[in-house]
Amino acid sequence: MSQMSSSGWLLAFVISLLMSLLMGLALIWLSIERTDKAYTIRQLKSEVEQRSVLKSKLEVERDRLLAPQVLRRKAAQLGMSEARAGQIRRMPDPGPEAVAFSEDFFLWHIWARAGARLVTRLRRPSTAAGRKEGCAHGWPPLTGTASASARWR
């Protein structure tokens, strides 16, 4: 019995030693990953700071270029002058009705294109001989018609 219990202790010791080694390796790996993430975060913070400095410099440059005296000088260099009284035309604001109309028109346009594609697919020749002699179903080919711009898909 003493030999069996000593081999049991030895097995438990070896297993615990392997588990300790595995836990140590996991801790080292996590430490390396944490250091890597910290380095990446530092780099990103530095990049954000550089970009914010660049943004502020660009805003200052934009404001300088859009200053009235600079624009006036640039317009004089290009031969531009102020518009006379009859040269400016003001268009009335179309209002929300025009926006609703344009959205409806856009949806109608999409619907019409889908219908045209369906018709085009229905008219597609089914055989190579049909392509040469016209459509296999007896309809004339689409070339020379208003829908000739429709591509075969």
Short summary of the structure?
The chain is mainly alpha-helical.
Reconstruct the topology from this structure.
Elements: H1 2-65, H2 68-77, H3 95-122, H4 128-133
Descriptors:
153 residues; mainly alpha; 4 helices; disordered C terminus
Verbal overview:
This protein is an all-alpha fold and 153 residues long. The chain is built from four helices and no strands. It has helices at 2-65, 68-77, 95-122, 128-133. The N and C termini lie far apart (84 Å).
Shape: elongated
Alpha-carbon distance between the two ends = 84 Å
Described by strand count, sense and barrel closure, the largest sheet is: none
Strand content: under 5%
Secondary structure category: mainly alpha
Rg, Å, rounded: 38 Å
Q: How much helical structure, as a percent, in the residues?
A: over 70%
Order of helices and strands, N to C?
HHHH
Mean pLDDT: 78
Q: Show unreliable segments.
A: 144-153
